[in-house]
Amino acid sequence: MVLLFLLAALLQEEPVSSSLYGSRFLTGGLGGSITHRCFYSPTPANKYERKYWCKMAATGVCYTIISSSSYTSSEYRGRVALGDTPQNGTFTVTMTGLRSSDAGTYRCGIGSTNNGLYVSLNLTVLADATVARPTQLIRGELRGSVTVLCPSGDTRGDKKRFWCKVGRSSCGLIASSDGYVDRRHQGRILITPQESSGAFKVLMNDLRKEDSGLYLCGTQGLRGQESPQEVVLQVATASTVPRRPKFFSGTVGGSLSFQCHHDPKGTYEKRYLCRWKGGSCPVLLDDEGFVLESYKGRIQISSSDPERGTYTVVLRQLREEDAGWYWCGARSGHAELTASLKLLIHKEICSSRYPGTAPPVRPSSASPAAHSTPRHGSIADLMGTVPKGTTMGTVPQGTTMGTVPKGSSTLLPTATPGTSATSPGETLQESSSGESRLLPVVLPALLLLICVAITILTLAKIKLLKKPGEAGSTTGSLEPAGLSPGREERMEENPSPGEVQEFRMGSGK
Prior knowledge:
Blueprint: E1 20-22, E2 25-29, E3 34-40, H1 44-47, E4 51-56, E5 62-67, E6 71-72, E7 80-85, E8 90-95, E9 104-110, E10 117-126, E11 136-141, E12 146-150, E13 160-166, E14 171-176, E15 189-191, E16 200-204, E17 213-221, E18 224-236, E19 247-251, E20 256-261, E21 270-276, E22 283-286, E23 299-305, E24 310-315, E25 324-332, E26 335-346, H2 379-383, H3 424-432, H4 439-478, H5 485-493, H6 497-506
Parallel strand pairs: 2-10, 11-18, 19-26
Antiparallel strand pairs: 1-3, 3-8, 4-5, 4-9, 5-6, 7-8, 9-10, 12-16, 13-14, 13-17, 15-16, 17-18, 20-24, 21-22, 21-25, 23-24, 25-26
């Protein structure tokens, strides 16, 4: 929901700036006075630059009324003043003896011309205008926190409390007491319940540079907002707040601990931990011994170190519903120092086997290999053990294809005595369980099997094609000489060097 204020239509378009802020509308009474404050980042350039206050004419030109360069328009002399406070990044414009003709659009700005850095505002002059509250200036640090006090004056608690950021033409709602929180502020903003005076607080933490700007806070009834409070928030980019972990993870049934930090030089009435959810943050425990009933026996402040400004919280017997945002807080009067963190709760820690996977089936053989320890993720476990001296993929001459001579290596899971390996039963069991860790082992092994098989079949085919030609050549050259059977037998037993070389190359050596 976006709150539209009655005076929003009178607002003018102006350049978006992150270093100059001020009220967008003013109301004064006839004969009375108004005071307007313009807030700027106290950088060296801004501190010594010209500050000005000008009024827009119908022609679109902004005529200077007063500036820090000792200029004052003759029409306004004696009833306008400008004061600059560079160390605070603020300059103030005061106009007295208001007339009906003073109503209109003004600019407060910084620069050598009236078209540089500025904020536009609309001044309304009424006969019976009420005095508006002065604009609050709140300064914060990057990654730090701030507390904004919003005086309501209305002690009835049935009205909605709101916090919105003023834009060009409207005030965008950030949080409200009915539980609404803008998506970009989840876990880091809180509107407290109203006090007996009707006032309430807005707490913001994990401050960012883009949080700087003009805000409104107040209550909203059936007739709209009631005298909202203007707040200028300036977030200094130079921060003394260190970066700290924001996310902590635990497991259901387990426990986790985390540290909360505060200023060791500060004096705090109470330090606490609360659970942020839906724009509210009920306290779970504090350093005075309070523990929320539903958390008793599960949460405690285990240690505290005031000199370092830390205290440690331990949460045990974690549940899935414990996941979410938490706030560490330290209260000192109306101010509260807060910091947000988020817990991530996992169902269980991943084990070496997936749930439901049966233990591996052990072979009944009494051999040493059968009682060896299975190893996963190793190619040697799947490939088996190669006896010493055996050449992988070599088929002895004269051996029929498709048969493996005794003592030759195969690519089945085997193990020699005293060697650790995975039994076939274990391999089948692991494969059936769908364990993803075997995939990097099984796939290369299958590829190797396919490559070896293709190589052997190719060599066999080449050899079979060559044998008829070789046989014919040998017969044609030896028949005239009448080679004896004994000579032929010796040639078969001792092949020529060329024949041996060809075989070895074909076997993949």
